[in-house]
Amino acid sequence: MDHWDVIVAGAGQAGCAAAWDLAAGGARVLLIHTGEGREKPCAGGLTIKALRRYRFALDSVIRETVSTLNLPGPGGDTRIAVGEPFCVMTHRRELDALCRERAGERGADWTQANGVRAVRQSAAGVVLELRDGRRYRAAYLIAADGAHSPLRRLLQGSQAGAGALALEAHVPRERLRHYPPMTLDFGAIRQGYGWLFPKGDHVNVGLYVWRRERARPTLQALRDYARRSLGCDRLDDVGGYPLGTWLTRRAPLCGRVLFVGDAAGATEALLGEGIYGALVSGQLAASAILAGRAQDYPLLLARWRDELRQVERLTQVFYRSAPVGCMLLRHGLAPTLLRGYARGWTLGQTKRAWRGATPGGAPRDPDGGPFHDLDHGKPGG
Ligand SMILES: Cc1cc2nc3c(=O)[nH]c(=O)nc-3n(C[C@H](O)[C@H](O)[C@H](O)COP(=O)(O)OP(=O)(O)OC[C@H]3O[C@@H](n4cnc5c(N)ncnc54)[C@H](O)[C@@H]3O)c2cc1C
Q1: What domains are defined for the chain?
Q2: Pocket lining: 13 vs ligand 1, CB cutoff 6 Å
Q3: Which of 32, 101, 216, 226 has the fewest Cβ atoms within 10 Å of its own Cβ atom?
Q4: pTM to 2 decimals?
Q5: Which positions ≥6 away from 338 have C-beta within 8 Å?
Q6: CB neighbours (10 Å) of residue 362?
Q7: CA of 357 to the centre of ligand 1 (A)
Q8: Is the Cβ atom of 278 under 6 angstroms away from ligand 1?
Q9: Which residues pair with 71 in a beta bridge?
């Protein structure tokens, strides 16, 4: 049986972020990857705060840099240009491949596997048995296996519970009536929104709902939205997936197993932005292990959990009265939000900056500290 310091199960954004930092910190890491052709659906939009958390340049996978947002509404489209980028567009398959490659270059080993059969924990460590019979031992296991988290099911016997859901598809550029700007359409579906993310050779079109027990995007609803917004309902690469939004209700640590990313529920509920939470939690899990204090991981994550709690309250209010929320967005709130995003702030930081704005309009430091102090040590960073 192979021995490792840390096994990271899942080579998505959370897993790769954890593996990179652990390898940079000198740990022997095994990253378990389910293989090409099984990429999970994701629109690949990265806000500036997410972009800043990568330990390496993403230039080779950035397909568009966005500084204008389109908000459709009853009176037509409202285009908000903030004059500086607040988001970049990547293709998730390309982004994951780059992150895996960088983690490998930094020293993480990896192996391909088709699933996990069993996990056993003891005071000495964790034994992971794969479906094909291979067994690995490590001091710690990082569960970065996404919103379905087979590891959570094995360890806790249940799925984490209701959360958000999104459905997406690609429309090749040649099929389009027009190439749209980045668009968020809060009238497209109840309890959520529709999106158009321009990616150069195609547009990613999707529907998001923040509570799937209250509203469910269907393939027909996605087709209808694509026809209305793009003039085309022939969709490629259709896929749907839950998003983990339960960090406020579930512990991210179970003995020697640290849950990160969607497996931890680290996605924010308002827009379903999950890559930032995946990076933050993956990096904090690595940092706790490298410091020899894995038990402190929930403490390190507490600020992000508090932020998610605030965003969840905002989400409830926003989608309960979506038409009013949209009107406010279209008439004044959106530029403030986007400027916050452009500065690399979280939603909560933007809200606090807005509330604490000086009479001259300049936002005070929203946290009374550096904006990126969710970071606790950047190995090699
Ligand atoms: C349709 C859609 C669009 C989205 N768009 C955006 C967006 O534009 N921007 C944004 O910030 N967020 C977006 N999100 C959310 C974002 O995709 C997730 O929050 C983020 O991917 C979470 O990263 P993760 O690494 O935790 O999990 P995942 O990305 O789900 O990665 C988990 C990985 O683990 C693998 N795996 C599963 N089981 C095992 C196992 N037993 N062993 C080993 N590996 C395993 C999976 O194959 C996968 O590769 C979107 C989500 C959806 C569903």
Answers
A1: 2-64+87-160+245-309 (3.50.50.60), 164-243 (3.30.9.10)
A2: yes
A3: 101
A4: 0.94
A5: 69, 80, 82, 86
A6: 9
A7: 36
A8: yes
A9: 78
